[in-house]
Amino acid sequence: MAITDWPENERPREKLLAHGPRMLTDAELLALFLRVGTRGQSAVDLARTLLARFGTLCRLCNAPAGEFAAVPGMGLAKYAQLQAVMELARRALAERLDEGALFDSPMVVRDWLQLRLAHLPHETFCVLLLDARHCLIEAVDLFRGTLNQASVYPREVVKLALGRNAAAVILAHNHPSGETEPSHADEMLTHELSKALALIDVKVLDHFIVPAHGAPLSFAERGLL
Length: 225
Prior knowledge:
The protein has helices at 12-19, 26-34, 43-54, 57-61, 65-69, 76-99, 106-117, 154-163, 184-198, 219-222, and strands at residues 124-130, 136-144, 168-175, 203-211, 217-218. It is an alpha+beta fold. Strand 1 (124-130) and strand 2 (136-144) form a beta hairpin.
């Protein structure tokens, strides 16, 4: 049955307009992006097929171009549209980070870090440089590693903070393996960076681990800072 034959209050577009996007399922939101289905499948059916194939919405959005385009009904044009939507989301969140103190909006920080780092196939260490009011000066991907390791040098972090005249920093790195829990090396690095930055009067406000799937972990909330 085509979506146009559904009761009006069950159609994704009408449901969104009446109740807001949060009331839609992942498949319904994806169906609005797809707009049309394939022969014998509505857009919602196709969306469910895609989610079943890739496992999660995150894996779907970050799938390689060839793997995504190989799905019947998809293609490189649809892949490009999806990546444009993802980049728009990243930029919109980045603008919100620029609007005020980061610790006034911790969920925005988490969401932005997840969009920026979760999909990367290699480990990346990111430093968010903040002024005295904890407003963002700049976010810098400072170190890049292999699948499960990035070498981080405290001297380079200190040099970066001095160069940007930062008063505080938020640290973040991703775990492409999907592991959320901090390793002993992660904890030792955080303490080393905190001590090194304290010598130049720069405070480490938090350190986030961003797994490939799931919510970022906060060192501050865990009492690890």
